[in-house]
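cron nightly-structures :: item 1 of 1
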Amino acid sequence: MLYRVNGYPEENEIVLCQVTKIYPNSVFVKLLEYDEMGMIHISEVSPGRIRNLRDFVSEGRQIVCKVLKLDKEKGHIDLSLRRVNSMQRREKIDEIKSELKAEALIKNLAKKLQKPFEELYKEVSSKVLKEYTYVHEFFKDLVEEEVDPEKYLSKKLALEVKEAVLEKFKPKSVTIQCEIKMHTYAPDGINKIKKTLLAIEKVSPTLTLNYLGAGRFKMIIVDKDYKPAEETLSKAQAVLEKFKDKLSEVSFEREKNE
């Protein structure tokens, strides 16, 4: 991993480490994101009595730790393994996986542009990491069209990076699925159903309707966030309410596993 942070971590920060040395009462690790060394006292490895530290850690193993104490003057970083909960560990690992995915994208782009990987990574990350914690966060904003890549990269490189990112990373989306049942005894019932369905389809381009048979239809709404998706759903329901009268009925069921 090329990703590095200048300086020292902050107290209580969750960091990725690699075990380098194991002593009877302590474990020494390298903070992979900072290129700094840290120490875990035996009491901070695991709750309870520990007879052999090697039952809990091994040299070369990557572990997620919490920064307990920092002495910049002496260059001492005290860490804890046992004070990291499962959610913190999972979030940190997910962050690192996403960053490795971003680096793999830059590596493939370097091959395409016939540039050294490290050189291109530095060119992409130098300005990006002044405002973002990770490069993958910048890529995420590119996908969501929330940032202009030319703010950080040359025009030519910005185009190449954006194209590569859009091919690899897909924008997050929210899906709402519902089943609609329509029944009418009106003389012009078929036309009434058709007009209602057309009105629903015009509510939003994020909405589609599929015919299931026997007056049943599946409505699918796919949007980038729940708020606009729910707004589209409300508008569609309002159209359906207008379908109801003494001769016409409609039922609406939303699927639970969206």
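cron nightly-structures :: done
Residues 86-113 form the longest helix (28 residues).
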